[in-house]
Amino acid sequence: MVKLTKIYTRGGDTGQTSLVGGVRVRKDSARIDAYGGVDEANSVIGIVRLSTSGEADKMLARIQNDMFDLGADLATPAKEGAVDPFAPDEMTLRITDTQIDRLEAEIDAMNAELSPLTSFTLPGGSEASANLHLARTVVRRAERHAVTAAAEEKLNPAAIKYLNRLSDHLFVMSRYLNNKGADDVLWVPGANR
After folding, report:
1. Of 35 and 145, which is predicted with more confidence?
2. What share of the chain is helix, strand, coil (3-state, %, to 5)?
3. What is the tens place of the pLDDT at every residue in 164-184?
4. Exposed, middle or buried by CB within 10 Å (0-12, 13-18, 19+), for 50?
5. What is the DSSP letter of 115?
6. Where are the beta strands (DSSP E) in the chain?
7. Bigger pLDDT: 29 or 125?
8. Do the beta carbons of residue 60 and residue 52 sit within 8 Å?
9. Phi, psi of 112 (to 5 degrees)
10. Could you tell me the pLDDT band of residue 26, with boundaries at 50, 70 and 90?
């Protein structure tokens, strides 16, 4: 259980922060950028939830919780010498295939009710859909930051996979909440030439 009694510690006043386990790193390191991007994406998903309800809101609530797990995962260095350096345990949160499988099942269930796309969609149609497109692009940016960090140090491959699948999930949900695709705003290539 997390218990926060003091919000400021002054530990970051010199431009460094601590990873899980206590290792100090610069705040502009690729790893910090990666989990900062996840935090930003989670905040945008919170904005999306202001315009959702029902099962969509329940899915987004689960995703927001996963995003905290993901941030903790990215903030935790690999266990050097372990058979699986990214195995979760009592004290270590890691993204797992179960969380990715849940996203895929939800994508498939929503997508089954949508007609195939005949063009790319433009962000819009409804407030929820437009906000989901914003969240999707912020998740894609977080994914790019995580890929950059993974090129520099070991990160859980499932964390990057989760971000990739999450952006797909948000895209499909944007269509689903656009009256199951009926209110999608489609791109018309070259329409304004």
Report:
1. 145
2. 55, 5, 40
3. 999 999 999 999 999 999 899
4. exposed
5. P
6. 16-18, 24-26, 121-122, 185-186
7. 125
8. yes
9. -60, -25
10. low
Alpha-carbon dihedral sign for residues 113, 117, 118, 124? positive
Burial label, 37 (beta-carbon count in 10 A; 0-12, 13-18, 19+): buried
Name every residue whose Cβ is closer than 8 Å to that of residue 165 and which is 6 or more positions away in sequence.
100, 103, 104, 107
**Residue 6 burial (CB < 10 Å; 0-12/13-18/19+)?**
exposed
- The mean pLDDT value for 85-112 works out to 88
User: In angstroms, rounded to a whole number, what is the distance separating the alpha carbons of residues 110 and 3?
Assistant: 37
Q: Where are the domains of the chain?
A: 23-76+94-184
Q: How far apart are CA 124 and CA 113, in angstroms?
A: 19
In the block, which residue shows the tokens 């998740």?
A: 139
Give 9-46 as a 3 state SS string.
CCCCCCCEEECCCCCEEECCCHHHHHHHHHHHHHHHHH
Q: Which CATH architecture has domain 23-76+94-184?
A: Up-down Bundle (1.20)
How many other C-beta atoms are found inside a 10 Å radius of the C-beta of residue 86?
19
